[in-house]
Amino acid sequence: MDTKSHSENFIYTDWKLIETQFDPTQLQARETLFTIGNGYLGTRGCFEEGYPQSLPATFIHGVYDDVPIVYKELVNCPDWLPFAIIFNESSLEEHEQREGLRLDQGEIIEYQRQLDIHEGVLSRSLLWRSPSGKTIKVQFERFASLADIHVLVQRCQITPVDFEGIIEVQTSINGYADNQGFNHWGEIDQGKINQGFWLHSRTRTSRIDICMAAKMKIIGTQATTEISTTPGYPSWSATFNAKSQQTVTIEKTITVFTSLETEKPILAAQAKLIEQPDYQTLLLAQAKAWNQVWLKNDVLIDGDSTAAFAVRYNLFQLLIAAPKEGAQEAGNKGKTAVSIPAKTLSGFGYHGHIFWDTEIFILPLLIFTQPDIARNLLSYRYQTLDGARRKASHYGYLGAMFSWESADTGDEVTPRWSLPNDFYGEDVRIWCRDREIHINADIAYAVWYYWWVTKDDQWMQQQGAEIILDTAIFWTTRVEFNPDDQRYEIRGVIGADEYHECVNNNSFTNCMVKWHLIKALWVYDWLCNHFPEQATFLAEKLQLTAEIRHQWSEISQKIWILFSPETGLIEQFEGFFQLQDINLAADYEPRNKSMQAILGVEQTNKFQVLKQLDVLMLIYLMRQPSDFPYNEQTLRVNWDYYAPRTDMTYGSSLSPSLHAALAADLNLYPEAYELFMQGAMVDLEDRRNNTGDGIHGACAGGVWQAVVFGFAGIRLTENGPVAHPRLPPHWKKLKFQLYWRGEYHQFDLGQNSQLPNPDIQGVIFDLDGVLTDTAELHYLAWKKLADEEGIPFDRQANEALRGVSRRNSLMLILGERKYSETKIQQLMQKKNDYYLQFIQSVTPKNLLPGADALLQELVQAGIKIAIGSGSKNARIVIDRLHIGDKLDAIADGNSVNQAKPAPDLFLYAAHLLGIPQNQCVVFEDATVGIEAAKAGGMWSVGIGSETRVGAATVVVPNLARVTWGDIKGKIQRIADSS
Ligand code: BGC
Ligand code: BGC
Q1: pLDDT tens digit string along 205-251?
Q2: Is the confidence at residue 330, as pLDDT, over 60?
Q3: Which of 348, 355, 430, 437 to mutate to test the pocket of ligand 1 (most atoms within 8 A of CB)?
Q4: Which of 48, 698, 705, 978 has the least C-beta neighbours within 10 A?
C-alpha cells in the first residue's frame, strides 16, 4: 500500500516528502525540513549549487564554542555539500560563455526534491535550461550514513539533453562556514590525497578539532581531474566532454571526525576514507540500518495519510538527532556526553542549547523504543552535574541546580538579555536563567520514568540516583518556610508558562518538587537496601545527611499547592485568579502573532493568559504514575479553565500535542484531533513562520505522545503497557510497539480492538458490593469517626465514597477543613480500626444473594476464580465469609500501587491465575472498576444501575439468580455480533 496525499505545498507518500515546485520564498524553512542526519550530525537541506539567502549548516553534537551574549553555541561545521556544474560549448578559456547551474537564473522545466525517510536519503531531480538555452538533467542524492556515523555520501548524475560540449564539475568542502555571520574557526589547514583532499579546522575558543576528508569518483566518461587547495576551501574538479543524452555520475564520499571522539581526527578521517566502498554498497548499508530503526520505531496509521506521514516525519527528525554513541561508554573513554538541542541539529534557533524539551517531550519516545539512546541523553545530565553544582553554588544554594539552557558543561547559557532590532529599543531582560527552576524536577522525573520503564538498576545506581539526590538537595535550600501558615513556599519563579515572569508558589513547580522529594527518599532507601556501598558513597559525596532527608519528608508534606479539593481547580500560582481575565476566542482570534507580541511583555504578565500548559502540564505528567493531583475530575475541571486561556497558535509549540493527549483522555472530538494535527504539521506547514530556525523538537516528541498516550490511550501498569484506544473516527488502524522491561509489546489497534476473547477462563470478583456488602460497615466506621470529629456525615454523603480509596474518602469527608498530614494519618488509622472491629461480626450469611451459587457453578465449570479488591482487609473478610477454598487467587489493596481505574489490580489477578487478561471477566459494582476492567482489556459484568455501571459488557442488578451459563451466553452473543 502506498497512499498519497497532497497538500498545498507537498505530496506525502507513506515514506516520502516530495516537493514538486521550487519556491524561493520558502527557502530557509525548506532547508530545515529537508535536513538529514545520523545521530552524530545533522545537515540542513541546502542546495549543492547554493542560493542567495540560503543557510547551509552542518551541526555535530557536542561541538560548541564561545560566543557573546548567548555564551556558547553549536558551531556550524564545514559545509560538505558545495557542488558546481559549469558547462561550455567549445572551450573553457572563453570566459564569457561559461554557464553554471543556478536556480535563480535560466528556466526550471522540471523540479522534484524528495526526502525518503525510510532510508534517510535526500534527492533532487532537475531539468533546467540555461539562459543561453542549453538543457541539462541533473540528479543529486545525499545521505548521512547511519551504518557508520562518520561517513557522508553525495552523488550527482548529469545528462546534457540537447547539447554537447565541455562540462566541468567542481566539488568542495567549505571551511568558512559561519553561524549567521559569526565565524568560529581559528586555525585551518588542508591537504591532498588520491582523488581527494582533507580539511582540518579548530574552533577558536573551545579548541575542538574537526577533520573532513573526501574522495571522488567519476563514472561514465574520461575526465581530467584536478585538486586545488585554496585555503579553507579544498576542491576537486573534473572536466569532460559531455555527450547529449549520456549520463555521467560523480560520487563523493566524506569522512568526518572531531577531537571529541579521537585524539587524531586527521588520521582517523583519512583511514576511514580509504576503507569506503562504492556508492551502491554504502546506500545498501544505509537502507539496512534504517530498516532496523523502523522495526522498532514505526508508527503506522491507516485511514489518514497526512497524519500517517506527519507522524513518521516527526519521528525521523528526532531519530536523526538522537545520539547513538553511548554517552556512558563515551564518558568512560573520557568523551563528552551529548543531548538533543531544542531545534535538534537542524537550525540556528536557540543556538543548539538543551532545554527541558529533551527530558519531558522527546525522551518518552526514546525510552519506549530505543532505551539505550534514552540512557545516553540522561547520562548527558549526569556528566553535566558539575555545571549544575556550580550554578547552585553561584546562587548560594546547595546541591545541583540544572541550567535552564545547557551546552557542553552544564553551566547556564541562557542569554541574560535579548537585544531589540530597533536602534532605540530597550534590551529585554530574560529571567528564565534565574527563575525557571522547574527543570530540576523535570530531569529527576525523566530519570525516574526511564528507570520505571526499563528497570535498568545498574544505570540507576551508578548515575540516575546521583542526579535525583543532588537535585533534591538543592530544593531544601531553595524553599522558604512560612511560619504563619506552617508551610513551605517557593517564591520568585517562572513556571512552565513563561508569560508570567516572577510568581510565587507556581503549582506546577511546587507539586513537581513534592513529587521529586518523595522519590528522592525512596531512591535513597532503595540504594541502602540494594547497593549499600553506593548509598554510603553518595551520602558522603553529596553530604546527604539524615537531617536533609528529614527535611525532604517535611517539605514534601508541607509544601503549598494551590489546590481546591472542593472544586478540583488548581490555581496556577498565588494570585493568578485575581489577574485580569481574557477571552482569547472572542477578542483576539484570528491573529498572526503571540499574545506576548500583541500585549507586550509587561501587560501579558497581568492577564490570565498562558503561553503554554502549566497546571495541565502537571496533570499530564502525574497522569501516568497516577499521582496527585491526577484524576479525571481534576483534569476535566482544569482543562475547562486553562485550555481556553492558552495561547495555542503562537504561544509555544510545546502546547498543542500534549493538549491533544489530554483532550483524547477527555474524549473530546474533534478537538483532540485538531490539536494533534496542529502539532504534527507545525514544521511541514511552517505554521508558526519559524521553521527556518530549525525543527520544533519538543513538539515532534509531543506528537508521538499524543498518538501513543492520547489516541492509543496507553496506560502503564506493573504488568506492562495496556492500550485503551480512542482513535479518531477515520483512523482504521494504529500500529506501533513499545519497549517494557526487556521486551517489545506490539499494539495493533482498530476502532473495535477493545473486544477481548469470548473463551473465558477466569473470573475476577470485586468483593465489596459484589459478593458481600461491607459498604454498610464502612459507613458505620466513617460515621463513628465523623461524629467524633463533629463533621456532618450521612448515608447520602456516603454514596460518594463508593469505590474510593481510604485516603480519598477521608478527603471528601473533611472537605475544606485543613488537617495536618499527621492528623490525617491518625484519622485513617482510626477509621480502619473501627472497621476491623465491625467486620468481626461478618459470617457466611453476609454473602449477597446468588453469590454462593455462582461461585459453586464456576468451580464446577472449571473456571478459575480470583478476588480483585482494592481493600487492604480483603483477606479478613474472605476468611469470615468462608469462601477461601473456592478461590484460586487473591489480589488486594496490598498487591499493586495504582488503584482503580488503573487496570493494575485486575491484571495482577489475571497474572496470579495464569490466564491471559483478555480471557477474563470482572464482576464490579463501581464505575472505576468497570473502567479498570476495560483498560485491562477484559470483559466486565456490572452489578447495579445502568447509570453507575452501564459501560460494562453485561449489566445485572445483583447476583440473585445469575448463572454462569447466562453470562457466558450474553458475552458470546456480543462477541459474535461485533
Ligand atoms: C518555551 C520553553 C521551551 C523553549 C525551547 C520556549 O518558547 O516556552 O518551554 O523550553 O521554548 O523550546
Ligand atoms: C524562551 C526561553 C529562553 C529564551 C532565551 C525565549 O524565547 O521562551 O525559554 O530561555 O528565549 O533563549
Answers
A1: 999 999 999 999 999 999 999 999 999 999 999 999 999 999 999 99
A2: no
A3: 355
A4: 978
Chain-wide mean pLDDT for the chain?
Answer: 93
Answer whether 432 contacts ligand 2 (Cβ < 6 A): yes
Host H or E run for residue 219: strand 209-219
Q: Name the one residue in this structure whose C-alpha cell is 569532460.
A: 240
Tell me the C-alpha distance between 43 and 32, whole Å.
Answer: 9
Q: What is the mean pLDDT of residues 676-686?
A: 97
Atom of ligand 2 nearest to the CA of 611: 8
Q: How far is the CA of 354 from the centre of ligand 2 (A)?
A: 11
CA of 649 to the centre of ligand 1 (A): 14
Predicted confidence (pLDDT) per residue in 406-449, tens digit: 999 999 999 999 988 889 999 999 999 999 999 999 999 999 99
Q: 355 CB under 6 A from ligand 1?
A: yes
Measured over the CA atoms of residue 774, residue 775, residue 779 and residue 785, the dihedral's sign is positive
Distance 725 CA to ligand 2 centre (A): 36
Long-range contact list for 749-752, CB < 8 A, 24+ apart? 749/712, 749/723, 749/725, 750/725, 751/727, 752/978
Out of 72, 350, 355, 497, mutate this one to test ligand 2's pocket (max ligand atoms within 8 Å of CB): namely 350
Residues with a known catalytic role = 498
Pocket lining: 15 vs ligand 2, CB cutoff 6 Å: no
Answer yes or no: is the C-beta of 499 below 6 A from any ligand 2 atom: no
pTM over 0.85: no
What's the CA gap between 172 and 176, in Å, rounded? 12
Instruction: Using the predicted structure, report yes or no on whether residue 808 has a pLDDT greater than 90.
Output: no
Q: Where are the alpha helices (DSSP H) in 384-464?
A: 385-394, 432-435, 439-454, 457-459
